[in-house]
Amino acid sequence: MRSVFREDHHMFREMARRFIENEIVPHLAEWEHAGIVPKSVWKKAGEVGLLCSTVPEEYGGAGGDFGHSAVMIEELARVNATAIGFTTHSEIVTPYIVAYGSEEQKRKWLPRMVSGEIIGVIAMSEPGIGSDLRSMRTSARRDGDDYVVNGQKTFITNGGNADLMVTATKLDPGAKELTLICVEADRAGFSKGKLLEKIGLKGQDTSELYFDEVRVPAENRLGEENKGFSYLTHQLAWERTIIGLRAAASIEALLEDTLEYVRERKVFGKTVFDFQNTKFKLAECKAQATMLRVFVDDCLGKAMRGELSAEVGAMCKLLGSEMQGRILDELLQLHGGYGFMSEYKISRAWVDARVARIYGGTSEIMKEIIARSL
């Protein structure tokens, strides 16, 4: 039994699992073909309390903790529901508003995010800048009681469905400091690019966003001017731990699927599991998965206690994403030719897992962060 969870977490898991099995799993293939998940699914999730579980009760949330967040992350990973952008919305966007938003902003946006009425995104990445956020070019100039935003963002998760963008900008194009401004999708001058075609995460509505003289009231600024970079980096430890949590759950689920497959699949008159090579490979995968689970749960416990550091979050992402890539590759190999067929979950999960070593900061950036603490 994993000691990091309480009874209320286990009850939440049961509810999340039922919803995912009934409302998400039957439609995954359809959504991956369409490249986007209908907004009606978000509203259904909101109705049963599965979105933004850490939002305080006074703003419509359940007032939960990172344990509830982890449950939802793991249950989506268990079925490889990579089309669903709930995690970005609930665990990345809303925490910025909770942490840095004014009382007016919280009451204006959070209840509708909890209900699934509006979908949030974090608009940081830009063409050509990679992980170097300080070199971004999106600008916001002050004009009376407004900011006027210009620029372009790319690789934006939930971009196609986006209703509210927490947008990283610069007040001075030549400076390094960032300012976060919330931009609603219905503002004049804002537009979305076409959905980006990717090798994985095919059901995830990833797109570019364009800001052409978008006028936004000054009260849409999140927090203080020129404090955006510190806000972003403060939240990154948890965001990177999310990727480690997802990796551990994915490995465990695919390991179970592979065990079932090799015990049924026969080659040369015996099951694939009967071969010593298969047993040894699976034994290695099980041992590594168990080690990762212990570390990831320790990271989750630190997050729940407010003790998660930047370097530990980076370790969680680095180890989780790298191990996920290696182990899923081994598991796919044990499926033989069928592992290359898209109808099998292992093939889709293998492709989807590749981006984990890139987004949220590349593995190379994680090593840089860890090295600073040496």
Overview of this protein structure:
With 374 residues, the chain is α+β, with helices and mostly antiparallel strands. It has 11 helices and 10 strands. It has helices spanning 7-24, 28-34, 39-47, 66-78, 86-100, 103-114, 228-264, 276-304, 310-334, 345-353, 363-372, and strands at 120-123, 139-143, 146-156, 164-169, 179-184, 190-195, 207-217, 221-222, 266-267, 270-271. A 4-stranded mixed β-sheet has the order 1-4-5-8, covered by helices on one side. A 4-stranded antiparallel β-sheet has the order 2-3-7-6, with no helix packed on it. A hairpin with a 2-residue loop joins strand 9 (266-267) and strand 10. The longest helix is centred in the middle third of the chain and has 37 residues, at 228-264. The two termini are 33 Å apart. The model has no long low-confidence stretch (mean pLDDT 96).
* Integer average pLDDT: 96
Structural shape: globular
Strand order of the largest sheet: 1-4-5-8
- Determine the number of helices (DSSP H or I, runs of at least 4 residues): 11
Strand content: 5-15%
The CA-CA distance between the termini, in Å, is: 33 Å
Spell the H/E element sequence.
HHHHHHEEEEEEEEHEEHHHH
**Estimated structural class:** alpha+beta
